[in-house]
Amino acid sequence: MDRRSFLKTTAAGGAAATATSLAAPVYAQGKQTLTMVTSWGRGLAGVHDTAQFIADRIGEVSDGSLTVDLKAAGELVGAFDVFDAVSSGQADMYHSADYYFLGQHPGLAFFCQIPFGMNFMEYTNWWEHDGGRVMGEELYSIFGLKAFPAGNTGPQPGGWFNKEINAPEDFQGLKFRMPGQGGEVLGKLGVSVQNLPGSEVYQALSSGAIDGTDWIGPWADEKAGFQEVAKFYYTAGFQEPGPNINLNVNREMFDALSPAHQAIIENVARSANLWGMSLFTANNAAALQRLQSGGTQLREFPAPVWDAFGEASKDVVEQYMEDDLYKSIYDSYMKSMASSAQWSASAGGAYEAQRNRVMDL
Question: What's the predicted TM-score (pTM) here?
Answer without folding.
Answer: 0.90
